[in-house]
Amino acid sequence: MFRIRYFVISLVFFIFSWAGIADASEIEAPTINYEKNVIYNLEEITVTGTTSLANNILIYLDGTYVDLLESKEKVGSFIYTYTFHTEEIKSGLHELTFVSQDKTSLVLSPPKIWEFSLVDEVPTSSVPAPTLFLENDVYVTEDSEIELLGLSKSSTRVQLYLNGKIIYFSELLVHESGTANFHYILNDLLKGVHELSVLAVDSLGNQSIANKINIFVEAPMPAPTLLSLENNVLKGLAKNDSTIQIIVDRNVVNEFKVNNHESGTTGFVVNIDNEIYSSVYAIAFDKRGKKSRLSNSPAVVLPEEYNLKPSISEEAVSEIQDNIEIEPNEKEIVPSETLEETKDVEIIDPDEDTTQVEDKEDKDKEIANLFEDLKKEASKESGSVDETKMQQGRLQLNLLIFILFLFGVIAWIFWVNRELIKERKELNELEKKSKDT
C-alpha cells in the first residue's frame, strides 16, 4: 500500500514538473544588443534588447537579482533599456543575466547571459574619437534610411560598425582646419534595435575609442482619422495613449489626451470654436512625444445660419413664369382675323381719291410691323425664362458633384481604416517572426 502511494505521488510530481518545463520552454529568452566584452571602470553601460509584450525582464548580476523592467507597451515588441555604472562593480570577470518572465503565469524563460571583463585603467589613445551629429546616445526614428554626418580629426579614416559588422571605411579625410567631416547613409534598416559604432584610424594604424549610439527603428506613429465636421463638432479616431492637436487654418486651437479603448483605437469628439475657417487637420503624439503625420481634412458642414441659400428659389421662378405679361403697346393692335378681313376687302372706287387708298396701305403696313415687333418681344421673354431653367440645371449639377465628393470621402475613410488593420497585421507578423528568430 505504501508503495502504491509513493508511486502515485511520484507520478503526479513528474507530470507537474513536465508541465512546468513545457511552459518554460514556451517563453523565449530576451535578446541582448551589446557585443562589447571589455568594459573600463567609471564607464556607464547601456544594454538594450527586445522581448514579447507579455513579458517582464528580470536582471541578475553575478547571480544576484538587481532589477525588474516592466512591459507597459501594447503594440509591437517590448524594447527594454538597462543602464548601470561600473564604479559599483569590482574589476574582473562578471555575468549580467537577463530573463523573460510571463506577466500572467510568472513562468521564466531560459537565461540570456552577457559576460564581460571590467578593467580599472582606461587606455589612452592619441587619436580622438569621431563625433556624430545626433542629439542623444539613443536615437529613435521611423525611417529605414538615416543620413549620418560627423567630424573626425584630419588625416584619419573613419570606420562605421552596425551591430558589430563593419559597413563603411572612408578614404583619408584631410582638411586644413585640422578637422574633416564625413557623410554616410544607412539604408534598409529593419524595425528593432541597432548599435552603431564609429571610430577613427590614423596613418600609423592607431585607433580611437569607439563612439557608440543605439538606434531604435520603430513603426510610424499612426495619424488621426477625422470622420466628420458638422455644425462645428469634429469627430475622429486615434491610437490609444495619444495626445491630439487640432489645427484650424494652420493654428493649433485645441490639445487634449484621448480616453483609451480596449481595442487599441479610440474615438474623440471636440468642438471647433472658430466661426469661419477653411481647413481643419489633426496631429497625434505618443507618450514620448513622437509625432505623426497630418491627418485627413474632413468635409466642412457649416451651421444653418452660415449655409448659403440660392439667389432665387424654384417657387419664385415658377411665379415669375406665371406672371409674365406682355406690356400693352401704345397703338391698338388688330387681331390676325381682322387683318385677314381687311386684306380681303380691298374694293377701290375709281372715283375715290388715291391718297386715301395710300393712307390705308400705310396703316396696314404699320399694323403688320407692330405685330412682328410683338412676336420678337414675346420670343425675348421666353428666352429669359429658358435661361432661368438653365441656372436651375447648373444648381442641380453642383449638388450632384457635392454628393459624389461626400461618397469619395467616405470611401477614403474606409480605405484608411483598412490600411490601419493591415499595419496591425504586419506588426503582429513581425512580432511572430522576432519570436521565431
Structure commentary:
With 437 residues, the chain is of the alpha+beta class. It folds into 4 domains: 21-119, Immunoglobulin-like (Sandwich); 141-217, Sandwich (Immunoglobulin-like); 221-308, Immunoglobulin-like; 309-322 and 391-437. It has 4 helices and 22 strands. The strands form 6 sheets. Strands 1-7-6-3-4 form a 5-stranded mixed β-sheet, with no helix packed on it. It has a 5-stranded mixed β-sheet with strand order 9-15-14-11-12, with no helix packed on it. Strand 16 (225-230) and strand 17 form a beta hairpin. It is elongated.
Task: Please render the helix and strand layout as text.
Elements: H1 2-26, E1 38-40, E2 44-51, E3 55-61, E4 64-69, E5 78-85, E6 92-102, E7 112-119, E8 131-132, E9 138-141, E10 146-153, E11 156-162, E12 165-169, E13 179-186, E14 192-202, E15 211-217, E16 225-230, E17 233-239, E18 243-248, E19 251-257, E20 265-271, E21 280-285, E22 300-301, H2 314-322, H3 336-344, H4 354-436
Parallel strand pairs: 1-7, 9-15, 16-22
Antiparallel strand pairs: 2-5, 3-4, 3-6, 6-7, 8-10, 10-13, 11-12, 11-14, 14-15, 16-17, 17-20, 18-19, 18-21
